[in-house]
Amino acid sequence: MSMEAETTQDAITSSTEAATSAEDVVDTEIGRHNEKTALREAHTDKTKHRDEEPKPPPRKCGCTCKISCNCRCTCSCRDHCVCRLSPWDGQCGTRVSRNLVVSTDGTSNQFGIRNTNVVELHSRVLTDTADQNKYYNCGIGTYVPYENQTSWKYWRQRLGNGLDLAFALNFKDIILKAYRWLSQTYKSGDKIYFFGFSRGAYQVRTLAGMIETVGLIDTGNEELVPFAYEFYLERHKGVVTKEATEIAAKFKKTFSRDVRVHFVGVWDTVSSVGVFRGKPLPLTSSAGHICTFRHALALDERRVKFLPEYVEGGSSTFSTTGAGIDVKEVWFAGTHSDIGGGVKKNLDLNSSSVPLLWMENEATAAGLRLKPRDGGGVWKVEDLRKDDVHESLTDSWKPLEYLPLTRLSFQTPDETTATPHLGSGRIIVPGQRIHISVAFKSKDYRPRANFLRESSIKWDSFIGKEFGRDDFEWARSFGDEVEMDLFDGSFTFEAFQKLRNLWAQGEQETQDGTEHLGSQASTYGSESYWIERLAFMVLSGQLAANYLSELEPTSPDKTVKQVHAAVELFEKLQTHRPHTFDADVAALLEREARLLVGLGQKTDALQTYRKAEILRRKLATEEKTRTADIGNLARCLENIFWRCSDLGMFNEALVSIEETVKLRRLIRSRDEAISNSAALGYSLNSLGNALSNVKRHDALRVDEEAVELRHKLAETDPNLTKDLAQSSHNLGVDLSKVKGEAVQLHRKLTETNPNAAKGLAESLHNLGVELSRLGRHEDALRANEEAVEIRRKLAETDPNVIKHLSNSLHNLGVEFSRLGRHEDALRADEEAVDIWRKLAETDTTATGALASSLYEQAYDLRVIGRHKDALRACEEAIEIHRKLAETDNTVTGDLATSLYDQAYNLRVIGRHEDALRADEEAAGLRRNLMQAGASVEEDLGRSLENVVLNLNAIGRHEDAVRTGEEAVALYEKLPDSTARSGHVANTLKHLAVYLHAVGHHEDTLRADEKGAEMHHKLRKTDPSLTARSFHVLAEDFHTIGLHEDALRAEEEAVELYREITTQSTHRPALLRERITSLELFAKILRALGRAEDAARTDAEVASLERGPVDVAVDPSPSLSPIRGNREQAAQGEPSNEGAGNRSSSQA
User: Fold this and answer.
1) PANTHER family recorded for this chain (predicted)?
2) Tally of CB atoms within 10 A around 1022
């Protein structure tokens, strides 16, 4: 056994009691869990919220409620959702709905003698029932037989084809015809399949992009189709404006159905066969809007005008942490027409070419129903040996190779060059695969294509392989660089039916000496023949999926029986070929377990997952173990963890998830891809759950590791930010549990030992801090109130407690303020200030705490309208910080913060000159801190934003523009994040107003459009943060008298808050933010003289406040949600009862 195998085996414990079962979690699609995590993170109640079962991304549901679902609805009709009836594991549409197939042939191709793969596949699409409809467009205006070369129609067609080849005259017309057919035929839940060759391939990719952009137009509105196409093309014509984007979105919402294309299968996509290469059409270079994308490419094509169009810049290994998408780009031997067909006679539509069978197999696995081929699509050795690659670079095409034509360089995504092509071979980019059939070409064959980067595939050793019985381990060593798929998957069900019949009849195998692929001496039709064929199909990893795709849709309980029958059938195959079918049996068992979960049979599901675990463990501990096998075992064990957790078997669940984490670490040590790191982070999060469930405090250590890992991931992939938030939340929950236990212990001690009251007060104080960080402000308030009460009594006899009493009063004020009880907060603040003022008379170390309490007091005074008193309190805090900063540089940041807040107080009462001086001083201090190495760029940006507001208010518009540009430049240097986007968007909106004031209208338009575009993107990823951003923008404009601009911004905020808080999963804290937003909205309306509208807004506020509103404010850590809100949770105390750090509002 190799050292690597030994390491693997060590990493995989053989405990049979360790594992338990649950829902599949796919490593490469771990980010599918993000949306659910966000919903869980949104609920901050009194229990610890952990992720539960991972689910695929929401998609259109076929159930009666017509809402988005996760393949198991959360609505009342969830038990009848058709998504749950599916034996197929797809991501779009539903298995029980119809398949709509659109096929578009290449330019100059038509049905006839030399039929392409598009025609052949189209002919095999079953339409024997109403569940599959198909549409074909050849792209030829008039049909003319190939032999009729004396007809004027023939020469007219040749001329038309030549013009179309050069200038794509029919391009739009073909797309719109297919779009109209789909619009008229589509019904909710249908799956859409696209197939195309050459430019027809590009046309179906364009069609998919159009559907994503403007939707599939409602039946009866077909006259609007040309307009829909124009709206789609806006991105192609130039800069995308906010208006163009909004028009397309509104058009989609008003006239169309929101549909996601299920499958796109194309052969050798070419966009520019003609004279000129234009810009790529929108979404044709990506596949994120397509569930499954398959692309067959020609290794031997060399013509410059037939260069292929890859997706994602040629990389099919891009991050899939967002929506689940499935991309394969696979290379085959041959030129453009060898891959797509049409170069030789195919009147019988039975060419069975390798690229065609591969595409059919992929489509079948995705749910398409095809007619079985005669004899099960038998492959013969000589078929693969044939060296029938045609030379396409003929004399008529060669002159173009010497011209400086603009073309893709394939060195980096979308890079072009005008260097003459000179008949160079194509470029194979990382992430693409070589089809296994290439290895069986004759030893003399050498592909013309070249690898962009170093590859483990060397043509000399890769090509010329001989067939052996199951001896394909050499191919496995190439991993994902080779596509292990060489059979006609559509006959899978037929093969099993043949075996059933043979087993029932007891027929003995016979031999006839024919050399078939995978079985050189078995007779066609015998038991051994079919078993050998199926054994070879195992290499693709899709045998079980192909079998399940052929099952008839039915009710959930009957589907379980169907899948169980499939398990028994595959287990019988295991008896004939031990080990060969283990992975497929495991996959079927896992499918059966998932279905049992859906039926509520969790115990049976657990037992079924354990059976799968035995096989997964066996595969993962073999000598030549693949990383994929280890990943499959990890997924199975994680599923077991969930099922055990559901059943309350927490100790068993812990064993399973501990091993899962161990395996994930091993996988990540081999490959530090984002998907592997994300999977480890997910498993660590689950491990924290498991440890917490059995009350083990080492959950804290695991939570911290998950937070650290996910923090790094979020820096490179913003889609994972919500996962980070969930882990951070769990860490806080575990901390609060530990501190809650400390409170209980101290309570018991005080029953027998009154001296323990001091420890109880400390525990209550620290518990309040953690509860506040979790957003549980009502609970935090109660903890702080009790701490204050205990410390008041202790302070009567012990002067040393007075300092700690002030700490608790300070935090009590913070919680009152967060709950909107500012009068109560002010009373706590004033008492804390009085205590610190007396202490500071004899203890200079108390002055910093006094300044912090004055700062908080100023805030509460301002909120209740006592602006002059707020100014005085804040001014005193500034003076203290100023004196401290003379001898202590660490106080400089606090001084800047106090100045920042004082400037806000001054701006509110219209003293803009004084506000400007305070903001400029704060900005200067923060510049100095930044030059000294402190990370205060974001704080400096905020100070500059406020300088801009003041400059504009006093009429210095040119200076406002310059400072605003400095703020934008500063923000753009910050790491990419949603908060950074919010700051940049708001500053750009400010700039647009000031640029307009100085007459720079073109710059105004650019700044406004860019800011709007950033707000639009931010709205999609984080609507609550976007609402806060708009609210802050409105408050800025309102304070300097720009009420119309303020109204527009606050309208956006109010609309967003209404959307968010009407969802069933909104955070209660967001209702308070909505109320605050509406209150400002009413103020702005009154400033504009719209009293009636303001009164209606007041009525909405009153209605919300009468409801069960948790008025906790939940500010973002990096973008102030409501300017002036306390932006940092109350601080805790060290365990030695020291003074502790005071909370200070961040700028």
Assistant:
1) PTHR33840, TLE1 PHOSPHOLIPASE DOMAIN-CONTAINING PROTEIN
2) 23
